[in-house]
């Protein structure tokens, strides 16, 4: 990597070789698994907001968004424990457990007789996503080592969100022909079955790769070594370390605006007179650009540094949200969806890579879990905040407020985060 001072890694005392080329087969298998993880989330993106209004007749946006609130709280909390559990028991058992937890979700979404069932399904889905997605992130970090961490996170998140986008688009078309239930949720059941089978039969444990990296790791700064307790790691990641805390708040705001997009965009587009097919297109374009863009931005952050992409991405997202608030037609919203996806692509894998840069391999999984606790807590904050504002002042006002918060988050990263940590992490 041009300008990098990182040494190339050879097998450590555990016999584990670090690097993308050395672990390509297992890495690509994990990419496939994470695409399936994304697909289980994508089954909801187009259909559930419409199910809330058309099937369960929820008039208040705050009530309709309770499923995102439930999802964000359960996923955020599970992210935190996923890091600790994967350090204690290994990555693979946590991944398999996440798939097992997901089994009842499509059944509850299809047959749930009340909105409470849908909310409960999203509590379970949040637990599953916290275990499966967090673990695939950790496993890829374990395999590649520090040299291609941005590329690894770009591929991981691209797979996940292309899975979200493809399923959101597909379920929109299924719903337009066959109704909101049960058809749109049948692909999710298939994804869970395939993901569980691959994880049990073909995925291999990667914890020993992290152990091999830790043997040669030199901390970026004093006080960031291996012997830290859970409380110290939480305080560092959340508040004390400038870079880690800046990344954590940016992740939270990013998913705050994603929670808004998930819950209110389909309703906004439908109430403007767009059919389910066009709503599905707009709902899918945002995560599709987000997913595909990460194939470029993750690797780019390995060369340019993390901070410039994070700051620029948050500001692009803010501009895109402002355009959604001002828009009144399909063409304007399509442009906004593309911009929102591009801005999120700049941010999403880069934030994860930045956590991996600073955190010691011995506690990196726990730091990732804490970051993802804050980040996915943004779903809950976004659902509550945007629902309250939309009920009081309308959806465009809610979008405008979130746009302002997103811009402020980017400015905070510019002020607080250090640059070039990725060049000195080992």
Automatic annotation (TrEMBL):
GO terms for cellular component: plasma membrane. It comes from the Bacteria. It is found in: Cell membrane. The keyword Cell membrane applies. The chain crosses the membrane at residues 61-82, 94-111, 117-137, 158-179, 185-203, 309-327, 333-352, 395-415. CDD domains: MFS_MdtG_SLC18_like (cd17325). Keywords: Cell membrane, Membrane, Transmembrane, Transmembrane helix, Transport. It holds the Pfam family MFS_1. Residues 18-421 form the Major facilitator superfamily (MFS) profile domain. The keyword Zinc-finger does not apply. GO terms for molecular function: transmembrane transporter activity. Its main location: membrane. It is a multi-pass membrane protein. PANTHER family: INTEGRAL MEMBRANE TRANSPORT PROTEIN, RESISTANCE PROTEIN MDTM, PUTATIVE-RELATED-RELATED. This is MFS transporter. It comes from Arthrobacter terricola. The lineage of its organism: Bacteria, Bacillati, Actinomycetota, Actinomycetes, Micrococcales.
